Amino acid sequence: MVSEGDEAPTFTAPLANGDVETFDLSEALEDGPIVLAFFPGAFTSVCSHEMNTFQDRLGAVQETGATLYGVSVDSPFTLNEFRDKLGLEFDLISDANHDVIELYDIVTSFDQFGIEELAQRAVIVIDESGTVTYAWVGENAGLEPDYDEVEEAAAAA
Fold it and tell me: How many domains would you assign to the chain?
């Protein structure tokens, strides 16, 4: 996994924002710090709770000057439906080809279900220069991030 102080791996991926566009990390960083909230799968209970919590705290994250994005291996079409159903006002990045989770080394599997190569639950904060200033990874799929800590990291980025 990337660590604090590392240069964030850059990537381009589909962006689910109500439509399907392209997200480019390098371009996005021109607008300020980025918070990437990786989650295993849309429409699952813990992931839905996590994204709802980020939605509830979106104003506080935005006040730091950072932009929040959710990231999963779901298709952009699934993510748009997920975003719509939950009423999310932030965009979701589709890593359907698993390139981003491999770059950030946060690949996990749910072996008991025969599901391979999902995003491990993680939060990465990247400052405008492209440096990782905060990196958290959940030790199990049911563990959610410390949202206060994420906001503090976004404010410090």
Answer: 1
